[in-house]
Amino acid sequence: MKILQFVHGYPPELIGGTELYTQALGQRLIARGHTCIVVAGSNWDCPEASIAVGEDRGVVIARLIGLPRRMGFRPSAYDPIAEGLVRKLLDFWRPDVVHLQHWRRLTDNLVAICREFEIPAVVTLHDQWIACSRHHRLRLDEVFCADRTPPCVSCVDRDSWQRIGEIEQELEFRQQTLKRELQLADRLLVPSQAQRIFLQQIVPLPLDRLEVVPLGSPVRGPWRTGSPDPGLPDAPLKVGYWGYLSPEKGVHLLLEAARLVPITNKVEWHIYGPLGEPVYQGRLNRIAEGLPVIFHGEYNYRDLRSAGLDLAVFPSLCWETYSFVLDEALQIGLPVIVPNRGAFCERVGDAGLLFDYGDGRDLANKIESLLVNPSALTRLKRAATAAGVTSMDDHANQLEKIYQEVVDCHRPIPPPDHNPQDLLLHQHRQVIERDREIDLLRQRLAEEVDLLRQRLAERDRKILDLEARLGDMRTLEERLLGDMRTMEERLLAAGRAVDQKEMLLQQSSRALQERLATQERASAALAQQLAAFEKTIGELIAERDGLLRRVDEAERTPAARLQALLSRGRKGRRHDGP
């Protein structure tokens, strides 16, 4: 049999309970001799919408990539581009039966498309998305919504330009489209009686349309190891949680309960799962501050088996429709504490305790009761060890029978000549196409605005640069003017100094002239004195010369010569001694 599954995401890109279940089911159907194809939504970007085909252990995976993203929880999930791609795939593969796991990231008229191709469709309603754009009917204030006609306008995401009337029309279109999907489906499956009861309260369906088919576990078991008896009395109680760290899973409620458990009790709190949104993760960190809480981050199922946990707590705020983490706890042999709402009530049995939904105090009391009564924990652990889960092989066997029945009993339903829903669908297509054109125009306008802003920013940068350069020039001008003023002052000071020097020079010149004149007069007086001295000297010389002549004349006489000789003799004896 050629079986095609529709699902909103597929591992390893998108990992969740429904995604892992779809993967495991496809591989099991391949092992049982069927041809299995999965058409999955994707967040992969692409210049234009297209199909990326791959393979996972024999399962053909066709991802719809490049679809226009509608971020958040939008009122309608109809997508004409996805519809066109789905039509191409159905026309190419022509499967015998379609199993629809989810509409999200695809389009919300998949069953109607299958009807046009005369392909029978089985639908599994894994959550409350059929009646809630937020999947789990959990409002923004983290309060569960059980209203038959909830105020969805206040919960869904929208653009700032959308009016309330437009949102109401989209929600009405969504309701009519999905109502038709349920009417056209050959079989409607739900994973638990709790899901069946709840959907019958919020969706107008006949009681016999919803068929309970428990899901097969995506993880092969059993994993049970060790003794069901608890550890030593003085050993700490290891309480574990694993899964998504998100508000709807109530992880904060577990940590709030941890704060209410008396610190005299030895308890370790082990949280497994990838880090959540930064805001919520910060909230968890603040609550856990000072407590023996360990955030282990990413994990695999072997980590859970080897962690040595004593108790698992899943304080979900959602209306859980099955819970694969409960399957995993039972496969390990761990007792559980879960809220008294949804599928937990019918599935836990003697393997766990129920606490009042959303009540952290009651959750703390249930944990404390096991601390003070270890025998109760032993009984729960033995019950968990004995509990069983539905294997994927048994589940696939049950689905094979359902597939064969819808193939054998399927009868084409001729469309009416004038179906208001088709007209509404056509009008909605037009609205979406126009919205897309508007979005493209807005994108182009935004690009033009960004370009203009870039140009303005560039112009502003140039203006700032010119202003900076002008400022530099003005600064330089001021510096030059300052230098010129300084030079002028220096020149003036130099001029004044020169004038003073000239005055001094003139004064010095006059003084020198006066001194020269004085010296000249002194020189003239000296010259006169010299002349007088020379005259006197001349006279003295003449007088000497006369005296010398007279002496010479005197010496020439005999007496004079004798007297001279005697004088010379006496002088000689005086000098030579006796």
Q: What is the CATH architecture descriptor of the largest domain?
A: 3-Layer(aba) Sandwich
- Anisotropy-based shape: elongated
CATH superfamily of the largest domain: Glycogen Phosphorylase B
Low-confidence stretches: none
**Order of strands, widest sheet:** 3-4-2-1-5-6-7-8
What would CATH call the class of the largest domain? Alpha Beta
Mean pLDDT: 85
Query: Helix-strand pattern, N to C?
Result: EHEEEHEHEHEHEEHEHEHEHEHEHHHHH
Round the Cα radius of gyration to an integer and report it: 57 Å
- Quick one: biggest sheet? 8 strands, mixed
Q: What topology does this entry show?
A:
Layout: E1 2-7, H1 17-31, E2 35-41, E3 50-56, E4 59-65, H2 80-93, E5 97-100, H3 110-116, E6 121-124, H4 164-184, E7 187-190, H5 193-202, E8 210-212, E9 237-242, H6 251-260, E10 267-272, H7 278-288, E11 293-297, H8 301-306, E12 311-313, H9 324-332, E13 336-339, H10 344-348, E14 352-355, H11 360-372, H12 374-386, H13 392-409, H14 420-555, H15 558-576
Parallel strand pairs: 1-2, 1-5, 2-4, 5-6, 6-7, 7-8, 9-10, 9-12, 10-11, 12-13, 13-14
Antiparallel strand pairs: 3-4
